[in-house]
Structure formats: structure tokens, C-alpha cells
Specification:
The protein has 127 residues and is mostly helical. The chain is built from seven helices and no strands. The protein binds protoporphyrin IX containing FE (HEM).
């Protein structure tokens, strides 16, 4: 890339997600899915969902190359004391996939989102 010009590659995923409105729709769909998921919804019973929503939007926006800065805690810190299992993580990923289908993300975009979240598993599980 050259100085003063936006890098077309860097925010490609952000664009595929539909920018901020698209990310907001995705996070809302994911939170709805998790809320209805009896396997994991009790983890969220004392969580401020407006706060979580804002932080998830920031995180996905930043990770996809968008113009945001994630202001939340590290993944280790955010999930510490929960002792989340592999099964909890798998349920969360299933809910995320259902949400991505709800907002009709293209398959290649879905794969890229899963590629962002998958590597965080060691920071989330067993903390
Ligand atoms: C890669 C997967 C995951 C990502 C990217 C993620 C992301 C986040 C983020 C950004 C926060 C807010 C951090 C903060 O409060 O500063 C958070 C909090 C939380 N996450 Fe996750 N999370 C993941 C997996 C999971 C799973 C599998 C569960 C449970 C099944 C879970 C349950 C929670 C709960 C309950 C909170 C709220 C904590 C509180 O109320 O203080 N997360 N997560």
C-alpha cells in the first residue's frame, strides 16, 4: 500500500461483513442464538448484554480490519473463572454459524470469520 491511500486488502473482510451495520446485525443474531441455547445460556445470566454486544462489535470490527479499537478485556481475562469446556466452545461456534446463516453471509466470509475465532479457543476454554 502507499501513504495516504487506504489499503484495499486490510479491510476486505470488514467490507464482506457489510461494515458496521452488517457486524451489528451479525452480533445481534449471534446473541439471540446464544440466548436461546439451553446448553450455554446460563453462562450469560449475570452479563450486561448491552456491554457484551458493544465489545463483540468492536472486536469483530477490529479483527476484520475495520476502523475500530477493541476496548474489552483479554480473552483469558474475560472468560476466567468460567472453566468453559470444549463442548461449550463448540456450542458457541454452532450458534455463531447459525447466526451467520441468518444474516446470509457468503460461505467464504463465514470461513474467514471462523478463522478469526477458532484460534482463540485456547484463550477461552479452561480459563
Ligand atoms: C472465540 C470465541 C469467543 C469470543 C471471541 C468471545 C468474546 C467475548 C468478548 C469480547 C467478551 C467481552 C469481554 C469483556 O467483558 O471485556 C466476552 C465475554 C463473555 N463471554 Fe465470550 N467469547 C468467546 C467464547 C465464549 C464461550 C464459548 C462462552 C460460553 C459458552 C462465552 C461466554 C462469555 C460470557 C458469559 C461473557 C461475559 C463475561 C461477564 O459477564 O463478565 N464466550 N466474550
Amino acid at each position: 500500500s502507499s501513504p495516504g491511500k487506504p489499503d484495499v486488502q486490510k479491510d476486505a473482510l470488514y467490507q464482506s461483513l457489510g461494515g458496521m451495520p452488517g457486524i451489528e446485525r451479525l452480533v445481534d443474531a449471534a446473541l439471540t442464538q446464544v440466548h436461546g441455547d439451553l446448553r450455554i445460556n446460563l453462562f450469560f445470566e449475570n452479563t450486561d448484554l448491552a456491554d457484551l454486544r458493544r465489545l463483540l462489535i468492536e472486536q469483530i470490527c477490529q479483527a476484520s480490519g475495520g476502523p475500530c479499537t477493541y476496548t474489552g478485556r483479554s480473552m483469558e481475562e474475560a472468560h476466567s473463572g468460567m472453566n468453559l469446556s470444549e463442548a461449550d466452545f463448540a456450542a458457541f461456534v454452532e450458534d455463531l454459524i447459525a447466526a451467520m446463516n441468518t444474516v446470509q453471509l457468503a460461505e467464504s466470509t463465514q470461513q474467514q470469520v471462523l478463522g478469526l475465532f477458532g484460534p482463540m479457543k485456547p484463550q477461552v476454554v479452561g480459563q
